[in-house]
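Hello K.,

You asked for the raw outputs rather than the summary table, so here they are, unedited. I folded two proteins back to back in the same session to keep the settings identical. This is the first:
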Amino acid sequence: MQKLVLVCTALVCSCGVKQSKSAEGIPLDKVSYASTFHFEVIEGQEHVVVDEPWPGSKEKKRYSLDKPLKRIVCTSTSHLPYFELLGLEDLVVGFPNVEYISSEKFNQKVQNGTLLDLGSGNSLNMEALIGLNPDAVIAFDIGTESNTLGKVKEAGIPVYYNSDFLEQSPLGRAEWIKFFGAIFGREKKADSIFAKIESDYNGLKQLTSQVKDRPTILSGVVYGDAWFAPGGQNWAATFFENAGGRYLWENDSTSGWLELSFESVYERSSKADYWLGVSTVKSKKELSGLDVRYESFAPYIQDRVYNYNKKLGPKGGIDFFESGYARPDLVLADLISIIHPQLLPGYETFYFQQLK
């Protein structure tokens, strides 16, 4: 069974870690925002290292960059935009739950048979997977290594862990394009693409740096008995701040999601200026149909409710959850145009739409 070599801390210390250049001459340790992966050279061999493959993991995953991967199975729609940005759609030969894909290009691959559906639910069709003979499976894991990924490894197929979802900043998550560029031998292109996204994002951020009026922002909805809202250090909260807004839980120290009572949310945010992000609903009527109490919030009354489901895939997949992580510049532009429209006159939103 093919195995990936894990190098212990002692070996790293004894041989030293130094800056290296890739085959395209790009410094491999050039990571500015991402905190969950980095590049290093061990005994002359270039590696990309995933520092936290899954939440709380103490084990790093090291992947050699000596031979670019050519046939890939992905397991999350959020991986697909990196392939599109790099022009490498043809490398993806298998994917589970293809009905959730929003991308036109990848849906076309499904239709013409060049992207195989590997099953629904939380498991992979192992027989079909093995038949594809992929170089690797790019996977994510939210707990410990799953049984399914264990079976993939037992079949001799390397698993490359993508933990971009653990990044706490928009640019940190988008910088994972450098991980993909490295393992596919497209470092130079990945670096160039990210540099443009970074420049555009920071340029937009600069637009709002001096605004004095910072509208208050509410986010989330009730699921079951709790209102789920981004924590104050969450990826979404960073967007709200950078867009020139004042998120009403901005002082919270949580990087994940808050589970709040309806009453506490109402007390703090019933008079918010904007309500951004309301699950999958497409209209105010649909929103109030879920809970009539929503009608008493000021943003609902004043038609200032916006959702991120403007762009949908052919089977209803929300593109925001597919490409939005890789394109924080577009997300930020959308939010600025909503809460500070005078800063981006004539701009048409990409992901967000006003609910009527």
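The second followed immediately with the same parameters:
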Amino acid sequence: MTSLVWIQNEQRLSDNPLFWKVRNDSCILPVYVIDPRKWENNRLGLSRMSALKTRFLADSLQNLKLKLSQLGSDLHIVEGFPEEVLPALAETHQLRRMVYTAGHCSEERSVQNKVIQNLNHIGIEAVAEGEHTLIADRSLPFPIKALPDIFTKFRHSVERETTPPAELPVPTSFPNLPKGYAPQSWPGFEASKIQLEEHQQVLFKGGEDRAMERLRYYTTESRLLSTYKETRNGLLGSDFSSHLSPWMAHGNVSARTIYWQIKAYEAQYGANDSTYWLIFELLWRDFFHFTARKHGDDIFKPEGFNQTYRKLGRKPQRDFWQWTRGETVDPFVNANMIELACTGFMSNRGRQNVASYLIHDLGIDWTAGAAYFESQLIDYDVHSNWCNWAYLAGVGNDPRGLRKFDTRRQAQQYDASGEYTRYWTQHRIGA
């Protein structure tokens, strides 16, 4: 068997079902396609991939390319439309099948369907392999259409009736590259050549090596995991939470690798509420993934999918753009928004507050906030981002219907000294 391996958000060697699937093939060609549609402007007129997001992706791909080259393989990085590029590569190199991980939101499905259709026209098979969740969908105790819309019900059923699959090892050797293929790089997509804006700063570098360094640091090296539940609402610095989400979003590390690392940590140092709480957060991630699959494009609509409460906001106006630049009348909101613009990251506590402020204090359509986050967050995950925003807007999974945060009280509770607010509000991000 000869295979094209379509890399998307599986930018790693460890626990990668795609590489495990093709480990015994006679030859493989791993490919990442830089689809220009991902950099198109969204309805706000903002690129869907900020410079910081693009730089993280470039770092991630270069790291995977290096790791593959050390095993005698390569990552072919090419610009174009996947439905055109992938069939052409498969035909040129006489590859008999394409292996990929299926996406389940409409944009991802649309591209994948075009790729599969064009492959079928030239007699090449497409095989979907693996998933991005901790729990395999085939082992869920209910079909996707019967997924509970309340997280607690989902969690109790999953914890009682399922166990995450074991990690897949890295193959000890990789199949050959296709005969006549010359390893190459695409000079237009190197992290060092991606120009950042003046206010932007790189706090996270993409790649599996960096992801595993962070995972080791947060667990066995520092043992910060043992206090995660107590510190997870922190705001300043990097040690208050795992900060693994950027690498998870790009598939530099899998949820299963993190889960089994936690279990190994518990065996060595003991389990407590904090070690469990990080698993709890992984289950929230799964829940939103499956929710997006159940409700489809309704997760992107202002009215959402919750039939019990609907509060439609107004279109973005001047105060929306002031919110994006951290120029509102609320210093705590401003600090969080400036941090996002400067680093591409924001704490979970910050995200809840700025989203609530946009929706409930400014009265703006929540989907505008979700679209802005999509353009800026280096840990952007379509399922978690949109379902979290819908949750806070009262049109998603939240059974309470309305979740409004008192941002001034939150600042007093989580930034009592004002250190975080002072640190970020001294920055300016321009017009």
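The longest helix spans residues 273-295.

Happy to rerun anything if the numbers look odd on your end.

Regards,
P.
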